[in-house]
Amino acid sequence: MSLKLRLILIINAVLLLILMVGSVLAIDTAKKNVRAEVASSEKLALYLFEIGVLKNPKYFSIESEFKPLNLQSLVHMRHLTIEFFNLEGKLVDSNDSETHTKAIDQAPNWFVGFMGLFSEPWQPKRLVVDILGQPKGIIVITPDPSYEFGEIWNQFTGIFYLAGAFFILTNILVAWIVFRALSPVEFILKALTELESGNLKVKMPNLKTSELSAISSKFNVMVKTLRASIEQNHQLSQKLIRIQEEERKSLARDLHDEFGQSLTAIHADAAVLKALANKDYPKIKPSVNAISNLSKHLMNLVGGMLNSLKLGVLHELGLEEALKDLLNTWQLRHPKINLNYQINLKALPKLNETILITSYRIIQECLTNISRHAKAKNVDIHIDYIKKNTSSAFIDITVNDDGVGFSKTHRDGFGLSGMRERINEIHGRINIAGDINRGVKLNIQLPMTRKK
After folding, report:
1. What pLDDT sits at residue 99?
2. Cα–Cα distance between 106 and 172 in angstroms, integer?
3. Are the C-beta atoms of residues 54 and 130 closer than 8 Å to each other?
4. Rounded to 5 degrees, what are φ and ψ at 348?
5. pLDDT score of 59
């Protein structure tokens, strides 16, 4: 649930609680007012009947006969139902009428019943009509709060509409305030998303509220610090790669000048000893042959190391042939892995040394990772030269294996980190897709510039 929706729901819950408490208080007040008004009307009616009927001589004729009370004239007494029953219990007169009925029907039945739940039962009052010691009947006065309930219903209806309008307007105002107050959060989320995607140039605007403004300032400082740190690490990595290449050249030079020449001398001396052994010293012939073969093997081994370190084959044969030699040599060392490759670099123009070395080292690092970690049975490599137009050309490298793969949370080792740094140095692109037990697929694009 979003923060905006949560705040709106909390405010609505508070409003509803206030409305419920107000409704309870209003019902309690209405209950007390209804009982007070009905009780007052009941007392007044009893008093009037006692004074006006039982003690009024106009209700008696010479024959001392009781005249009708004409209770219909009391229809205006809306809080009471007044009925006169004769001695046989038959209803003779009542103040009930269509007007009275209409008045009490103003509130729906469910509301009248609901209000009745909060009131004590109303007990009717009985007044015996006794004229000159002779009983004539009974006047029954029954409290009837329905009319009051109708008035309360009308009041509650008005209050309900007013509360509904207030509730809607309050929600609109609250939603506007909440959305306006939290709108800067969208800037924060957008900036974080940009930062997550690797955009280190993202910058948050200055926000109005003091708290969010502090977050904006801290975020911009953090991005600036992160950018400086990454740039420093990038420079160090580039320096490390250059030092590594220089060390390889130095090691290749030492191997060639010292170790290689010494092996050549040993092999030449072994050839002389081999000639002497054939004539005068046949007993040392096996040892001489062993020295000759071993020196020749070491010379071949050093030659391979020199090609790997100094990349002499790259400069002598070109990138395509050098890559084919690298892949074929790797296949010989790993015969259990099925290697399929296609290299289409015939139309490749002359490149600067950085792109040549980067292309070669990337394939070399991919093969090293596969042999060390992938446990793959099949490897497919495609290397193509793609030229879209005169200003857009690149070497497209795709390496796919069916090995153990790695999870999405996998962190790059030194090999992949070095590969990324080489690619970033020439502003290339790399995409790595992999999953557990589903192998790894690398797609690399190296933009090219012609050699000046």
Report:
1. 47
2. 34
3. yes
4. -70, 125
5. 47
Q: Calculate the alpha carbon distances from 104 to 44, 73, 152, 419 in Å.
A: 20, 18, 12, 90
How many whole angstroms separate alpha carbon 251 and alpha carbon 93?
129
Among 231-235, 251-255, 271-275, 444-448, top mean pLDDT goes to: 444-448
For residue 294, which amino acid is it? L
Mean pLDDT over 71-85 rounds to 70
Greater model confidence, 310 or 136: 136
**d(Cα 436, Cα 439) in Å, to the nearest integer?**
7
Question: Would the pLDDT of 212 be above 80?
Answer: no
Q: Which amino acid is at 379?
A: V
Confidence of residue 74 (pLDDT cuts 50, 70, 90): low
Pairing of strands 338-344, 134-143: unpaired
CA distance 204 to 56: 94
The model carries a pTM of 0.47
For residue 253, pLDDT over 50 is answered with: yes
Distance (Å, rounded) from C-alpha 423 to C-alpha 241?
Answer: 12
The two tokens of residue 282 are: 């046949």
Both tokens of residue 77?
């007494």
3-state secondary structure the chain: CCHHHHHHHHHHHHHHHHHHHHHHHHHHHHHHHHHHHHHHHHHHHHHHHHHHHHCCHHHECCCCCECCCCHHHHCCCCCEEEEEECCCCCEEEECCCHHHHHHHCCCCHHHHHHHHHCCCCCCCEEEEEEECCEEEEEEEEEECCHHHHHHHHHHHHHHHHHHHHHHHHHHHHHHHHHHHHHHHHHHHHHHHHHHHCCCCCCCCCCCCCHHHHHHHHHHHHHHHHHHHHHHHHHHHHHHHHHHHHHHHHHHHHHHHHHHHHHHHHHHHHHHHHHHHHHHCCHHHHHHHHHHHHHHHHHHHHHHHHHHHHHCHHHHHHCHHHHHHHHHHHHHHHCCCCEEEEEEECCCCCCECHHHHHHHHHHHHHHHHHHHHHHCCCEEEEEEEEEEEECCEEEEEEEEEECCCCCCCCCCCCHHHHHHHHHHHHCCCEEEEEECCCCCEEEEEEEECCECC
Cβ-contact 385, 395 below 8 angstroms: yes
Q: What are the φ and ψ backbone dihedral angles of 401, each rounded to 5 degrees? A: -130, 165
Instruction: Report the chain's mean pLDDT, rounded to a whole number.
Output: 77
Q: Per residue in 284-302, is it b (16+ CB within 10 Å) or e — as a string?
A: eeeebeebbeebeebbeeb
